[in-house]
Amino acid sequence: MPRPEVSRQIVARLDDLHARYSPTPQDRVVRYYTPGRGYHGPEPGQDHQEFGISLASLDGEVYCSGLCDVRFPMQSISKVFTYLLALEDHGREHVLTRVGVDPSGDSYRSIVFDERARRPYNPMVNAGALATADLVLGADPAEKLERVLELMRRHAGNDSLAVDWDVFELEMQIADRNRAIAYLMRSEGMLEGDPEDALALYLQQCSVPVTCQDLAIMAATLANGGVNPRTGERACTRRYVRDVLTVLYTCGMYDFAGQWAYEVGVPAKSGVSGGILAPIPSKLGLAVFSPGLDEHGNSIRGVHVCREISLRLGLHIFAAEEEDAMLGLRAPAAQID
Question: Do 38 and 178 form a contact (C-beta atoms < 8 A)?
């Protein structure tokens, strides 16, 4: 349990960050995401000031600043959990035959594949997410979806997580590109099941609303080796957490992943609804929500906040030991299976 003065210091720092980044970003806001419409440019009079920062320690404490209770669809952040479930269902070697772990260098929605290996480049691009959705085991589509949701709920410690069916229906209306990817993958032998089932599961997982606080706890659970620090429940198999965090470090931030790894240096996954999930192994879980997006589809405020927190707290994976200033947030290593 952190000392009260440490907790106050953490909240004060988060409030300072929130205040400094609350004004309209100087970076050009390229687009926003609205369920059912996908990407669209800024519109006159549009208010996109929603902004929250949440940090979860490995002893179960959660610190928030700003709008941390606003619900928004997970979108691509959901890919993290479907990939994890595919690993648990089939193991590392089999999943690698179906989806790679290399950055594509292209937009997450590009219709490109690893031609030599005949698979999508990684599970964080849309083609790879469709492949992992196809890998989820279940007697029928409803059981597959329920298994994905249960995994998300365990990570968040929130049993109420569920699909927003209105969002899903709207997403299905604008799914032409993802549908094209799915059918092309089937024609190339990259999908074994029905492309429509894989597409539906993918869009359903994307349509699960979460809050910034939910995301921080999900990130902390991954950072804690798969044990939820608030509930104490093991949410996933520990040995696959390493695989997931590695892919998040190299591929999680769309085609900005290399620069993110260079500047911020922590595993992370963004979503076009404005969320960023960042599990910092053995230290903490970080989440930011702000819907103004840059040219890569990442939250502008989110990238700035994560960069500054990483710098100030010495979180970069290759930071020198003397850069580490964790404010007492270290916790014992998570239990091992």
Answer: no
CA distance 183 to 315: 41
- As annotated, the residues of the chain forming the CATH 3.40.710.10 domain(s) are 4-75+208-323, 78-206
Which residues, in sequence order, are CB contacts of 87 under 8 Å at separation 6+?
95, 237, 240, 243, 244
Listed in order, strand segments (DSSP E) in 148-305 are 209-210, 269-270, 275-280, 284-289
Give the up-direction half-sphere exposure of residue 137: CA atoms within 13 A in the CB hemisphere.
Answer: 9
Q: Which fold has domain 78-206?
A: Beta-lactamase (3.40.710)
Q: Are strands 284-289 and 275-280 parallel, antiparallel or unpaired?
A: antiparallel
Q: Read off the pLDDT of each residue in 192-197 and give the average, rounded to a whole number.
A: 95
Contacts of 210 (CB under 8 A, 6+ apart): 71, 72, 74, 77, 156, 158, 161, 218, 275
CB 257 within 8 A of CB 122: no
Task: Judge contact between 101 and 250, C-beta under 8 A.
Answer: yes
List, by residue number, the catalytic residues: 76, 79, 202, 254, 272
The predicted-structure confidence for 274-311, as pLDDT tens digits, reads as follows 999 999 999 999 999 998 888 888 999 999 999 999 99
Q: Per the structure block, which two tokens stand in for 65?
A: 């600043």
Q: What is the pLDDT of residues 79-116, one digit of tens each?
A: 999 999 999 999 999 999 999 998 876 666 677 777 78
| CATH class of this structure's domain 4-75+208-323 | alpha beta
How far CA 181 is from CA of 174, 188, 284, in Å, comes to 13, 11, 36
Q: pLDDT for 28-87, tens place per residue?
A: 676 666 655 555 555 544 446 789 999 999 999 999 999 999 999 999 999 999 999 999
pLDDT category of residue 336 using cuts at 50, 70 and 90? very low
Contact 242, 277 (CB under 8 A): no
Judged by DSSP in three states, 127 sits in helix
Collapsed DSSP state (helix, strand, coil) of residue 277: strand
| Contacts for 202 with CB less than 8 Å, ≥ 6 apart | 82, 126, 129, 130, 133, 178
Residues, the chain, total? 337
